[in-house]
């Protein structure tokens, strides 16, 4: 070996490169590596063979116990160092694994004592036997309770089932206690120790417990999820068979650990280390994403039923957590039983998705109707009936929705279109819904991109303006800046993007861009034209931002525009927000010279006291009040009264929506100061305001 290593070192030495060709250097390197690898492999195989020989020579009949001891320790380690779903019954499974490790150690200890009778201590042995029997009873109870809690129907009958289990436990303790105290667990003749049939009678109790678990499974199987039914249906008979087999071959081979380690391992793998919910039998959103994307990639036909439960009612009690959990899991299992082609996925404690992999329309329609009927039906709950209110969306595969983000946005989009109440409602999506959504989704993506880039010169944000007529001067003194978006050569109006922008946190970016563009236009107009200011709409969301004052003033200062040339329009909803932050922003901006308009007065729930407490300069009456006042004498009297009150308080009054001569005459006669509407001026591009303002 030394010679080869020296040769290798010599081969790759710089001087050697000059003496030998590259081919020889590589040849020596290959020989050296091959020798090392071959020797390492032979040593490894020899070590494995010796280990197998030691194990086989040690004790063949308890190898299974050692194997399951290793498995139990590994699973227990995974439970400790990973982050499984820690539901209520997870703790039962975790406790079961701890008890399993202890039980196997006790089993190996008892067998080890019987192999060395010369060091036998009867008192110590009886104590170990007592621990073994008592620990086994705990394991049986944990397995039984785990199965019991998998069914909500059995959980409701928990008290009665537990009485039966307590009787079983009492019988077990009396029987085993008598055997230990009477010395019936083993036979010792001074030279050898033999475990008696009385000792192995714990297997009989295990069989009885397994059969009892099977019987409770039969009682509650209708209300169990598919995955739970299959799991219990396999594990319980398998446990019974293994326990019976252990009874007959107990002297030859010991493998009773398999009857309790297997269940706890399966429970952990199925319900805690993967996405399955052990009660509902559903997987989670990530599992749904996998199935959904696979269906799209493979061009399979599918139908998705999205269910959002809005309210839960039991005897007047509304929306308690236990009711939600019970309703969601029970309804989900009932739906799962409709067809094997249906798969359920829980999204939250109020939402779940049913995925139907079928292209036959008639069958799918039948499935949808059955799902709706199951959801609408009341559930027995304790001594009453649980009712659920829900919204149900049915969506077929469509090229317009081809990823999870689009799907989530589509849910929100469609739920908003449904009636905003607690009544049950089913809606089957149509082609026009997908097309409208496609446009909204494109707008949303553009808004997010505008927000992320935060380019104050962004050409996708277009600024129009509608001049406002002053009755006293007979000229246009101000204008309202109006936002538009440009997408694929089309103009998008505010009714299609303002709400989206507020929801996605993009509205402030739009306001900053519009303000910057208005400031630049003001600089163009200021030297030549006579006007008071240009108003900009400001969202309620923005007014609750503590940084608003700093950011708006920075744009004004960067453009060297006087604060008095900018006015902000706020809606009535602004006053119902965070009062302290809104009030502070308005106070600081007002002190800096920015004036405020109260927009759309009369459309919300106005609090006159709150209006007076905020620094508004102008009250802008909504056009709906104007139209109704013209035709309704009662509304006309109210308008007269309100106008009179505001005038006394020193407010400037503006009315919008003036479209004809009748509207104009009413506005002038009733004391308004400013008029905005198509009768006087339509919205124009910001650059064309010069056509309406008078020259200095």
Labels describing this entry:
single chain, 696 residues, alpha/beta, seven-stranded mixed β-sheet, 25 helices, 21 strands, 56% helix
Structure description:
The strands form 4 sheets. This protein has an 8-stranded mixed beta barrel with strand order 10-11-14-15-16-17-18-19, surrounded by 4 helices. The longest helix is centred in the first third of the chain and has 37 residues, at 22-58. It is built from 25 helices and 21 strands. Helix content is 56%, strand content 16%. Helix 5 (90-115) runs antiparallel to helix 6 and helix 5 (90-115) packs antiparallel against helix 11. It is of the alpha/beta class and 696 residues long.
User: What is the helix tally?
Assistant: 25
Helix fraction, binned, reads 55-70%
Largest sheet: 8 strands, mixed, barrel
Strand line-up of the largest beta sheet: 10-11-14-15-16-17-18-19
Arithmetic mean pLDDT: 82
Shape: elongated
Low-confidence stretches: 1-20, 50-58
Structural class: alpha/beta
Distance between the termini: 103 Å
User: What proportion strand?
Assistant: 15-25%
DSSP, total strands = 21
Radius of gyration: 40 Å
SSE inventory with pairings:
Layout: H1 2-12, H2 14-19, H3 22-58, H4 63-81, H5 90-115, H6 122-149, H7 152-156, H8 158-181, E1 186-188, E2 193-195, H9 202-220, H10 226-248, H11 258-271, H12 285-297, E3 303-314, E4 317-318, H13 321-336, E5 342-346, E6 351-356, H14 361-376, E7 379-381, E8 384-396, H15 404-417, E9 425-428, H16 431-453, E10 461-470, E11 475-487, E12 490-492, H17 498-503, H18 507-526, E13 529-530, E14 533-537, H19 540-543, H20 548-558, E15 566-571, H21 579-592, E16 595-601, H22 608-613, E17 618-621, H23 623-631, H24 633-648, E18 652-656, H25 661-669, E19 674-676, E20 684-685, E21 694-695
Parallel strand pairs: 8-9, 11-14, 14-15, 15-16, 16-17, 17-18, 18-19
Antiparallel strand pairs: 1-2, 3-4, 3-6, 3-8, 5-6, 7-8, 10-11, 10-19, 10-20, 11-12, 13-21
Helix pairs in contact: 1-3, 4-5, 4-11, 5-6, 5-11, 6-8, 6-9, 9-10, 10-11, 15-16, 18-20, 23-24
């Amino acid at each position: 070996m030394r010679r080869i290593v020296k040769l290798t070192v010599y081969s790759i030495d710089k001087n050697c490169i000059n003496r030998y060709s590259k081919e020889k250097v590589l040849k020596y390197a290959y020989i050296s590596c091959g020798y090392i690898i071959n020797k390492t492999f032979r040593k490894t195989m020899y070590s494995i063979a010796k280990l197998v020989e030691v194990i086989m020579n040690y004790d063949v009949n308890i190898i299974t116990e050692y194997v399951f001891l290793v498995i139990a320790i590994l699973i227990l380690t995974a439970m400790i160092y990973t982050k499984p779903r820690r539901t209520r019954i997870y703790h039962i499974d975790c406790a079961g694994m701890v008890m399993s490790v202890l039980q196997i150690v006790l089993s190996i200890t008892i067998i080890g004592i019987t192999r060395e009778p010369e060091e036998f201590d009867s008192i110590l042995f009886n104590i170990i036997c007592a621990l073994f029997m008592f620990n086994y009873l705990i394991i049986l109870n944990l397995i039984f309770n785990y199965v019991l809690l998998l069914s909500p129907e059995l959980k409701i009958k928990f008290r009665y089932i537990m009485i039966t289990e307590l009787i079983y436990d009492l019988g077990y303790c009396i029987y085993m206690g008598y055997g230990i105290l009477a010395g019936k667990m083993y036979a010792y003749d001074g030279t050898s120790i033999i475990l008696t049939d009385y000792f192995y009678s714990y297997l009989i109790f295990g069989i009885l417990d397994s059969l009892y678990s099977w019987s409770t499974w039969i009682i509650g199987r209708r209300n169990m999820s598919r995955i739970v039914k299959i799991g219990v249906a396999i594990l319980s008979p398998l446990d019974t068979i293994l326990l019976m087999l252990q009874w007959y071959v107990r002297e030859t081979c010991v493998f009773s650990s398999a009857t309790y380690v297997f269940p706890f391992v399966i429970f952990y793998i199925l319900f805690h280390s993967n996405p399955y919910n052990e009660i509902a039998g559903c997987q989670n959103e990530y599992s749904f994403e996998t199935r959904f994307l696979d269906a799209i990639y493979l061009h399979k036909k599918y139908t998705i039923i999205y269910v959002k439960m809005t309210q839960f009612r039991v005897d007047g009690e509304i929306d308690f957590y236990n009711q939600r959990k019970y309703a969601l899991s029970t309804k989900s299992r009932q739906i799962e039983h409709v067809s094997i082609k249906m798969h359920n996925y829980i999204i939250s404690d109020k939402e779940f998705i049913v995925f139907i992999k079928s292209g036959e329309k008639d069958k799918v329609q039948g499935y949808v109707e059955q799902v709706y009927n199951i959801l609408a039906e009341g559930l027995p709950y304790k001594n009453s009936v649980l009712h659920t209110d829900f919204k149900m969306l049915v969506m077929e595969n469509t090229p317009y929705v081809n990823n999870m983000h689009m799907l989530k946005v589509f849910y929100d989009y469609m739920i908003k279109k449904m009636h905003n109440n607690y009544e049950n409602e089913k809606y089957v999506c149509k082609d026009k819904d997908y097309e409208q959504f496609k446009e909204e989704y494109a707008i949303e993506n553009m808004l997010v991109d505008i927000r992320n880039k935060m380019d104050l010169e962004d050409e996708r944000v277009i600024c129009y303006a509608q001049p406002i007529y002053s009755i006293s001067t007979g000229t246009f003194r101000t204008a309202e800046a109006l936002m538009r978006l440009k997408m694929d050569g089309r103009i998008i109006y505010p009714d299609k993007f303002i709400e989206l922008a507020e929801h996605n946190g993009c509205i402030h970016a739009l306001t900053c861009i519009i303000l910057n563009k208005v400031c630049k236009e003001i600089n163009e107009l200021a030297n030549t034209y006579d006007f008071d200011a240009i108003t900009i709409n400001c969202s309620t969301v923005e007014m609750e931002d503590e940084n608003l004052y700093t950011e708006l003033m920075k744009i004004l200062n960067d453009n060297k525009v006087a604060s008095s040339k900018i006015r902000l329009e706020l809606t009535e909803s602004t006053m119902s927000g965070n009062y302290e932050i809104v009030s502070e922003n308005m106070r600081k901006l007002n002190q800096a010279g920015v004036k405020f308009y109260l927009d759309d007065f009369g459309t919300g729930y106005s609090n006159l006291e709150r209006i007076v407490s905020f620094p508004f300069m102008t009250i802008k009456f909504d056009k709906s009040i104007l139209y109704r006042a013209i035709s309704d004498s009662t509304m006309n009297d109210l308008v007269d009264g309100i106008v009179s009150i505001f005038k006394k308080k020193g407010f400037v009054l503006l009315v919008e929506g003036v479209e004809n001569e009748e509207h104009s005459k009413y506005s002038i006669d009733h004391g308004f100061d400013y008029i905005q509407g198509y009768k006087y001026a339509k919205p124009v591009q910001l650059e064309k305001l010069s056509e309406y303002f008078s020259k200095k």
